[in-house]
């Protein structure tokens, strides 16, 4: 995978985590994963 592509994916993951924390407040790792999954599924509809 080219370095540019990796940077985009890494930035996208960081943004998803930050958006989850902004929407749901302080969470532990499992809560972030569940919240990210929920936000991703609602935004894709």
Question: Would you write up a description of this structure?
Answer:
- This protein has helices spanning 3-24, 29-43.
- The chain is an all-alpha fold and 45 residues long.
- It is globular, with a radius of gyration of 12 Å.
Extended strand count: 0
The amount of helix comes to over 70%
Computed structural class: mainly alpha
* Major sheet description: none
Shape: globular
Order of helices and strands: HH
Sheet-strand content, in percent, reads under 5%
- Please tell me the overall pLDDT: 77
Computed over alpha carbons, the radius of gyration is 12 Å
Which consecutive residue ranges, at least 5 long each, have pLDDT under 50?
none
Number of DSSP helical runs? 2
Between the first and last Cα atoms, what is the distance in angstroms?
Answer: 29 Å
Brief account:
By secondary structure, the protein is mainly alpha-helical. Helix content is about 80%, strand content about 0%. The mean pLDDT is about 75.
